[in-house]
Amino acid sequence: MAPDARFADVSSSNFGPPHGFDRVCARSLRGVKTRTLLLLSVGTALMILLAGGALLFQLSNQESTSDSIAFGESASVGDVDVTVAGADVLGDTLAVSVTLSGVDDIDGIESFRLVTGDRRLDPIAAPGEGRCAEITVAEQRCTIEFDISASQGTSRVLVLRRGEDQATWRLG
Question: Can you tell me the distance from the alpha carbon of 10 to that of 7, in angstroms, rounded to the nearest whole number?
Fold first, then answer.
């Protein structure tokens, strides 16, 4: 056979399993009854359910990730010291009054998130009067503002994550 003759008529070739493969499979499955296959599938499903139940049991025994920090209480989160004095809703904006210090970080405010019942919000980054723009070594009192106009949730939690450390404050 010439090397090109193998590919000359592709339409007549069979791209399925090798010749006789289907007969071999039929012979190997001939001894397996439908009832056996059904029992195997039910057994597999039960093992999956047991594994899921064991995982839920492990998760239910875990303690909560972290307790909320009270207003006015200082917390060290990674390299930043934070005290949350309070929070006020001003129209479509939630203003959180904080005292920050510890490290020079021009993007440090982006470590804060506001978690509501339906979404996670980033702080407003545009400079404004009294608004936190960065974290500095020197202590500063400022506000971190969040646009809450798109949020439908009434539960609000302020989260600060620095590296592997995290702190939360319940705002309402």
Answer: 6
Question: What's the pLDDT at 46?
Answer: 95
pLDDT at 56 (0 to 100):
87
31-42 pLDDT per residue, tens: 778 888 899 999
Which token pair is 52? 């899921």
Instruction: Report pTM.
Output: 0.60
> 44: domain range?
18-60
DSSP type of residue 50: H
Q: Specify whether 53 is located in the same domain as 123.
A: no
Tokens of 51: 């594994």
What is the C-alpha to C-alpha distance for residues 122 and 145, in angstroms, rounded to an integer?
9
Q: Quote the radius of gyration of the chain (alpha carbons, Å).
A: 31
Pair 87, 114: CB distance under 8 Å: no
Q: Are 80 and 156 within one domain?
A: yes
